[in-house]
């Protein structure tokens, strides 16, 4: 019986070669897209899975109710208090990420970055494989350093270096452990680890100095919400009482005014994709879900093609079904045969999709900056499961439909001319065109939003401005900056030199409360040189710039942006007349002397936040945070000027350190990469959908028009013109297209409006993509169907009328 079924299947595949090829092509494309997006998702979810303690480790975030914002930092005393007062806590670790260091050994000197400053429990949380030394007490003292295998080879030329010394900034460190970084995906991969004992000790009373990332290890089986409730009760409220007392307010008033109001935990292995905030950056889970949904839609579209084409072939299979039923064939055996035919097509498509995925994987990895390999059994299981589901659905509907034919009716003539089955085909075709319409509308809106972001006036000009980072560990970095400013200004091709802490395209900035007249807001703040805002081309709205000739401009004067004014809810004049007590400097009152237009340094997906700029000498501790110098080069010979600066830097400024720089406008452009990739991905999926849909439409219209060739011959004999015949054959498909687009419009509007809500600077929902979708689908449907319809008007009349 199986052999007979296979013979019948092959005969029908050959007989309907076009629809068979289209089915295989569509399913192959759909399954390839599904597998590649699934691999991308699986790769993102695999971060930190290597860690055997992942079920007990949680990353800490805080939530501030007033600003409806999440943060990824904690203060030292809050972390210590949580470990002592919350019995479910086994351990905690605090960390921060320093800039690189020049490290000197008796063998060689090298610059090393990508390290961590961490409290001593690091290896209890992240049990890296130790190849030299021991992890116990590896970070016990302030002169201890643990290094990776790669760093050991770089500095010593070997890995067995436990007990060796490394000199960093005139301080001797002893190597206590050499470790191997984990092979699995991880965001925690330090090249060296140092315990900042002195720094932690100095912060023991600073409850509001939120500058450390942290992980907590809980007892096995502990519900993290238990920790969160106790943290709010025993830590946040205690901290609020301590910090509120000098201000003359109680804990509740402090919480309402300053926050944070809650602490929450995210499991270590969910940190990459599901954290509200993360020290290491969070993935774009929403985009992955959208891509996965779209890839599934393409598979569904391919399945729709299969169902439509199989039901459209009913006229050719009707007599076969009638004969088999007449000689004793059962409905169940017929259904099994039709399911087998669908399964063969799907499995062939699956094999081809595996080959195509392997072929496209290098380009896919390059596009998403990954190193994915097609060797994860999860991918094969999930994709095979999808194949089985598609086989069942796309095979079951045609099988049920075809096996329901009555032997007497089918043996009398052409069953397909009856009304039975027409609604099924039309309904499925409508769904297919609805999906195509959504992709066209969505693609055009995504394209418009990305163009809107790229063409928006940022409020600053970073063109020809190069930022050079220098060693932050200088004894007096502000003096180093002032000396460099004088020397760099003398180099030919340098137009101007300045400094700003908040840099376009970088997340490096600080925030604090700003208090004035019993009102407070949370604001970013940035140190700068006098001329920095003019240097960046920012526009002044009211007031004045900082002036080096006024002593007060290096004591307590600052410039704010329009968002600062809006958040206070005051007029410009009131802002300029008021004084402010900033959280970063409790010792004095600050005054606003100028208001500048909003400009977006971060990302156009985010709204512009309030920010205050002041001279780097205003707050004593902030002058130690200088880390860059910015140079505006003349356009005449940019390459030559950069080479001259590099030569001076490497010879006279920081010998042994790399010359690290970037152009500000190019760095900010990186913030668009994610959205440009979304646009490109959506365009590719859009093209795939249209190709699959149009090929399916062409094959379906070919089968349906072939069923009407005798009718065409009769009407042509009676004098019908080619134009009337073409319109008559295509109008059914045009009406289906119109209905599909009209149904898709409200669905597309809702889904794309939800997508646009993620952008602070977004386009208003345009009407033209909906009109374009309507016109394009109508035109494509007419073009595809009319080709076959026109050929149908050239039929051989004798061939179709000789038996009438």
UniProtKB/TrEMBL annotation:
<feature type="transmembrane region" description="Helical">
    <location>
        <begin position="684"/>
        <end position="705"/>
    </location>
</feature>
<feature type="transmembrane region" description="Helical">
    <location>
        <begin position="377"/>
        <end position="402"/>
    </location>
</feature>
<dbReference type="Pfam" id="PF02687">
    <property type="entry name" value="FtsX"/>
</dbReference>
<keyword id="KW-1133">Transmembrane helix</keyword>
<feature type="domain" description="ABC3 transporter permease C-terminal">
    <location>
        <begin position="292"/>
        <end position="404"/>
    </location>
</feature>
<feature type="domain" description="MacB-like periplasmic core">
    <location>
        <begin position="20"/>
        <end position="231"/>
    </location>
</feature>
<dbReference type="InterPro" id="IPR025857">
    <property type="entry name" value="MacB_PCD"/>
</dbReference>
<feature type="transmembrane region" description="Helical">
    <location>
        <begin position="423"/>
        <end position="446"/>
    </location>
</feature>
<keyword id="KW-0812">Transmembrane</keyword>
<feature type="domain" description="MacB-like periplasmic core">
    <location>
        <begin position="435"/>
        <end position="646"/>
    </location>
</feature>
<feature type="transmembrane region" description="Helical">
    <location>
        <begin position="338"/>
        <end position="357"/>
    </location>
</feature>
<feature type="transmembrane region" description="Helical">
    <location>
        <begin position="733"/>
        <end position="752"/>
    </location>
</feature>
<dbReference type="Pfam" id="PF12704">
    <property type="entry name" value="MacB_PCD"/>
</dbReference>
<keyword id="KW-0472">Membrane</keyword>
<keyword id="KW-1003">Cell membrane</keyword>
<feature type="transmembrane region" description="Helical">
    <location>
        <begin position="288"/>
        <end position="309"/>
    </location>
</feature>
<feature type="transmembrane region" description="Helical">
    <location>
        <begin position="767"/>
        <end position="790"/>
    </location>
</feature>
<feature type="domain" description="ABC3 transporter permease C-terminal">
    <location>
        <begin position="684"/>
        <end position="796"/>
    </location>
</feature>
<protein>
    <submittedName>
        <fullName>ABC transporter permease</fullName>
    </submittedName>
</protein>
<dbReference type="InterPro" id="IPR003838">
    <property type="entry name" value="ABC3_permease_C"/>
</dbReference>
<feature type="transmembrane region" description="Helical">
    <location>
        <begin position="21"/>
        <end position="41"/>
    </location>
</feature>
<dbReference type="InterPro" id="IPR050250">
    <property type="entry name" value="Macrolide_Exporter_MacB"/>
</dbReference>
